[in-house]
Design brief:
By secondary structure, this protein is mainly alpha-helical. It is built from 12 helices and 2 strands.
């Protein structure tokens, strides 16, 4: 018996990753800055148009997209995708609870086993790293956004500032901040305390700022 119904939309993951790696927020921004036709790029992204013709040649939109993204058509389309055309890239399927847990990469228990939101400061560093990585895995972030959040908080690597990350990815500091904020928002959903506890579990001293010091300053101001 199915416990859940999933509505899905199939897209070309290679194109989406390449667009993100090149610093574009979405297809609209890509087309606006490059002059590409949004409907044609959308058709390729949504698998509504095969990039290869029946004669085995790359279609103009596919070649133009690859040129803008600085790669080859072969990098943007797998062997199957090169001749694939979907009438509808949306669908719905039923899934059991076990299947849902496997699909999302989650375990059948809370991510942080501290219902009172106590910080996991006494846990060894490897456990803290595993907690964070499990949370990030569940988000399915593109490689660049994963790199930004891990580097900014020093998760398994040396901590970097927003300015450092902007130089590394050849984007603005504001762009890095926006991607970081979006990742953090998804990481904690609407529960800000959960997000704070999760990050502080890995870097309790400075992951999200010293919340205790901030509360202390506010208390002094009220006196």
């Amino acid at each position: 018996m199915s416990d859940y119904t999933i509505t899905f939309k199939v897209r070309n993951g290679r194109i989406r990753r390449k667009i993100a790696e090149c610093g574009f927020g979405n297809v609209s921004e890509l087309c606006r800055k490059s002059g590409l036709h949004p409907e044609r790029v959308g058709a390729l992204l949504n698998l509504k148009l095969s990039p290869l013709t029946r004669a085995g040649r790359w279609r103009g939109p596919a070649a133009a997209l690859a040129e803008v993204l600085g790669c080859t058509c072969e990098e943007l389309f797998s062997e199957t995708q090169r001749t694939l055309t979907l009438r509808d890239n949306r669908g719905e399927c039923c899934i059991t609870e076990v299947g849902l847990l496997e699909l999302s990469g989650r375990v059948e228990r809370p991510l942080l086993e501290n219902p009172e939101e106590q910080l996991l400061e006494e846990v060894d560093e490897q456990t803290k790293a595993d907690v964070i990585r499990r949370a990030l895995d569940a988000l399915n972030l593109v490689a660049r956004d994963r790199r930004i959040i891990e580097s900014h908080f020093g998760i398994g690597c040396e901590e970097q500032t927003l300015a450092d990350l902007a130089v590394e990815h050849d984007v603005s500091t504001r762009f890095v901040q926006t991607r970081l904020n979006k990742a953090l928002l998804r990481l904690g959903g609407r529960k800000a305390a959960t997000r704070r506890s999760l990050l502080q579990a890995y870097r309790p001293a400075d992951a999200m700022g010293t919340a205790d010091e901030a509360r202390a300053r506010q208390a002094q101001m009220r006196r």
